[in-house]
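TA notes. Do not distribute before section.
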Amino acid sequence: MKSLVFSAIIATCACLHAAEPTAQEWKAPDGTVIRYRWSAPEAPEAGRTYPLVVFLHGAGERGDDNKAQLRHGVSAILSGARAIDEPCFLIAPQCPSDSWWAPIDRGTMRLSSAEEPNALLDALVARIDLLAKEHPIDTTRLYLTGLSMGGFASWDLLGRAPGKFAAVVPICGGGDPTLVAKYKSTPIWVFHGEKDDVVPLRTSTEMVEALKKAGGEPKFTWYPEAGHDSWTAAYQDPKLIRWIFDQKLAAKDPG
C-alpha cells in the first residue's frame, strides 16, 4: 500500500514539475566533448548545499541529440527526490553513438579496460569537479547510478574515483571483480532482473560476492520475474530513493 501511495506521489510530482533538465555542453582540456542534461534545485536557499546525482544511461540512448538519455530513470529519480523533499542537482551525460561508456569483454561480460585511460569518463569526472565549484553542491553527497551500459560504467567510474561517491547504484550491469578492494567500503546497492537475457544476472552476482569476500557490505536486489528492464522497478522503489539520499561521506579532516 505504501509503495502505491509513493508511486502516486511520484506521478503527481512529475505532472507538477514537467520541465526537462536543461541541455548543456562542455569541452574538456583534451578536446573531449560532454553533452549532458542538467537539473538544479528549484528554489535553492542561500548558504545551503545540495546533493548531486550522476545518471549514466544505457546503450539504446546513445547519440548526439542530448535528449535520448532522458528516456529512462531521470524523471523517476527527480520525482522520487521531490516526494521525500530532497532537492538535488542531477547531471545526465550522453554517450556518443559510436562509443561506449566503458569497454566490455563480451565473453566474460566484465569490464575490459577499467584500469586504462577513458576519455569520456575522465572528462565527466573533471566536469563534476568543476560543477562542484560553480554550484552549491555538497561534495559529501555525490551519488552515482546507471543502467545496463550505464550500470557497467557505474562500476568502472567507481573504480576510477574511489572515495568520491557517497552511494552507487549499478542496475543490470557488471564490473571487474578483481578491483573491488578499491571501493569495498562504498555503500552500493545492486539491482538486476533474474530473467535478463541481455546482461545475465551473474554479472551482478559475481560483483556482490567479490565485494563481500573483500569485506564490503553491498545490498543486492534481484527481481525474479524481471528481464533486462530492472530499472523501472528500482527507481520507483521509495526505499531506494530514501537510501540514496541518506548516504554521506565522512567529513575530511582539514588538518
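Switch to the second chain here.
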Amino acid sequence: MTQRLTAAKGSIAVNAALLALKAGVSIATGSIGLLAETLHSGLDLVASTLAYVGIKKAMEPADDNHPYGHYRFENLSALAQVILIGLTALFVFWETAQHLLKPEPIQQAPLGIAVLLVSLACAWATAKWLDKVAKVEHSAALESDAYHFTTDTYASIAVLIGIAASMAGFPMADPMAAIAVGVVMLHGSVKLAKKSLLVLTDSVPDSDCLRQIQKLLKKDARVTSFHKLRARQSGARVFVDLHMRLAPRTSLDAAHLISHEVKAAIIKALPEVEDVHIHLEPEPKAETRMKKTRAEGKTKMEKAAGKKKK
C-alpha cells in the first residue's frame, strides 16, 4: 500500500510539472493543439489527485458503517476522473470549432515541438511505472492513472503532427490535431467508465481468479465437492463466497479446521483476496440418510404418542 501511495504522489508531481510547462508554451505559441494538451494535463493533475485521495481513503480500516472496508473509494475516484475527462473533451471540441472557422498561424513552433517531445518522454516513462505498480498492487486507481499518461503520449504525437503540418503550410492541421486529442480523451473515458461501473455493480472479477480457486479446491482431497463459487471486487480487493462439501461423518471441529485451512490457502495463492466466506454442507447421500433417520425418528415418536393416548 505504501508503494501505491508513493506512485500516486509521483504522478501528481509529474502532472504538475507538465501542466506548468505546457501552459506557458501554449500561451507563447498560440497553438490550439497545445491548449488542448494543456487542458488534458490539467485534467490529469486532478485525476492523479483523485487517485491519491481514493487510495488514501481505501487504506482506512473497516468500521461500523463500512464493515467490508473502504476499498471502493478507489473505484469512485476513477469514476470521477471519467466525468472530468468527458467534460474536458467536450470543451476541447468547442474551442476547436472556433479555431476551425478562423485558423491562426502558430508562433514559436520549434519551442512547442521541444516541449511536446519532453512531455512525450515523461508521459511514456510515468505510464510504464504506474502500470507496473498497478499490476503488483492490483490498484484500479493507479491503472486508470497509467491510462491517462498513455493517452497523453498519443495526444502529444497528434499535436506534434499538427504543429509540424502547420509549419509546412497547413494551418488547419493544428485544430484537427486538437480534435484527435479530444477523441482520445473520450475513448479513454468510456473505457474507464465501463471498468469502474463493473466493479461498483458487483460484477465478477477476471475469470483467472475463479479458475485458480477452482484448481485449489479440486486439489484438496478433503473437499469432496463445491458449488456456488462467487466473487466480487471492491477496489483492489476481492471477496469470495462458496459452498463446500466434506466427507460424511466429518466432525464439526474437523470441518471448521478444514474451512480455515482452505481459506488460508486461497488467500496465500491470491494476495488480492481479502476474505473467503465458506458455507459447509454435507454430501447429498449423507444428507439423504440424515433426512431418512429424522423421518424414522419422527414416525417412532408419533407411534409412541398414539399408544399413550390409547
